Amino acid sequence: MKYYIIAGEASGDLHASRLIRAIKENDKNAMFRAWGGDLMQQEGADIVRHYRDLAFMGFAEVISNLPTILGNMRFCKKDILQYQPDLVIFVDYPGFNIPIASFAKSKGFKTAYYISPQVWAWKESRVNTLKRAVDKMMVILPFEKSFYEKWNYPVEYVGHPLIEIIEDYSMNSAPGLVKNQLGIGTGKKTIALLPGSRKQEILKKLPIMLEAAARFPEHVFIVGQAPGIADEMITQFTGKFSNIKVLKGNTYGLLSIADAAIVTSGTATLETALFGVPEVVCYLGSPISYAIAKRIIKIKYISLVNLIMDKPVVTELIQHRLTAENISKSLEKILSDEPTIRQMELDYHQLSELLQAGGKASEKAASIIQSMLQ
Question: How far are the Cα atoms of 60, 196, 235, 314 from residue 64, in angstroms, in the given order?
């Protein structure tokens, strides 16, 4: 069978690569053409566009890059028609994928969505578009199934793919090697700085994170550099700090040795929690994007950890609250306040149990996809 997969971010590349591997277990002759990244390519996908050229964050940024985005959409539609896949699979990335899903369905292609777009956060009416455009929706967050039931849209809860990914990593990793690689001795706390995988968010948040780190000279801070980010994007900020190190393309290795973390909102907040690392969550958008978001987004929290648990498990520093001083205070608390640390451990354990309930996500999704094509 021929599969066309569209993933527009680093997390999508990760989850889609696992899905490709699982599909190949069921379909030995599977061929994949995709929008994604290095991990999908390693699993045998022919990459049409790399996600590092696709990710635009915030309303203002999307508007300013609209000609590029529309050009990519035109190319994608043409490419699907030329490739003639048996199934088009969409992985999150809703601003791009929902319109392409509608196009693909209108042209008679079978469609599946793995990792639902977060329509529950804003503009819920998009569910009606998804119902028309997507033959099978697979969700990875426990509350999403009941959300879609309100719209009379049957979906499949497959569990969260991070559970199996992190379990696999933990079984085969050696944290000591990461410490040796970075030259970290004993007796010092190790703090992970995860500024994100998009250039825009790194430029906004990393300087503030580093300013906070400078207040803790007794600790070692390690910047987790995403694979698609050029070295100079990070080193232009880190060069003047003596207690800062950089680890490229090994977020899990970093989280496996971290005592705490300062994390950009997104999938990394959930990854950090599943590694059991106390964290502070950061968000900073352009003033215009934030003003628009405040008006239309309905959710109580910005981090996946708090959203899933429906309570403030981790501190969220959003927009004007994201300062070096606030990061410092929040970090000090999760490093030294025993009641806070113990409560976070209990909440993390409950979170993990909730996400494990659906099963192994990539295998379950691949099985659903196989049944669609038979």
Answer: 6, 20, 27, 33
Give the three-state DSSP class for 200.
Answer: helix
Matching CATH topology for 2-159+358-373 and 165-356? yes
Domain edges within the chain: 2-159+358-373, 165-356
| Cα–Cα dist 7/149, whole Å | 26
User: Around 23, how many Cα atoms within 13 Å sit in the side-chain half-sphere?
Assistant: 29
**Which two three-digit tokens encode residue 373?**
């094509």
Fold of 2-159+358-373: Rossmann fold (3.40.50)
Phi/psi at 12 (5° precision): -65, -40
Distance, in Å, from the CA atom of 299 to the CA atom of 143, rounded to the nearest integer, reads 13
* HEC-encoded secondary structure of 139-169: ECCHHHHHHHHHCCCCCEECCCHHHHHHHHH
What is the spatial distance between Cα 33 and Cα 49, in angstroms, rounded to a whole number?
A: 10
233, 223 Cβ separation under 8 angstroms: no
- Rounded Cα gap, residues 240 and 112, in angstroms: 48
DSSP 188: S
14-63 pLDDT, tens digit each: 899 999 999 999 999 999 999 999 999 999 999 999 987 765 555 555 56
- Token pair of 48 as six digits: 């049409």
Q: Which CATH class is domain 165-356?
A: alpha beta
Q: Which tens digits make up the pLDDT trace of 277-302? A: 999 999 997 777 667 666 667 778 99
Q: What is the pLDDT of residues 196-230, one digit of tens each?
A: 988 888 999 999 999 999 999 999 999 999 887 89
Amino acid at position 136, single letter = K
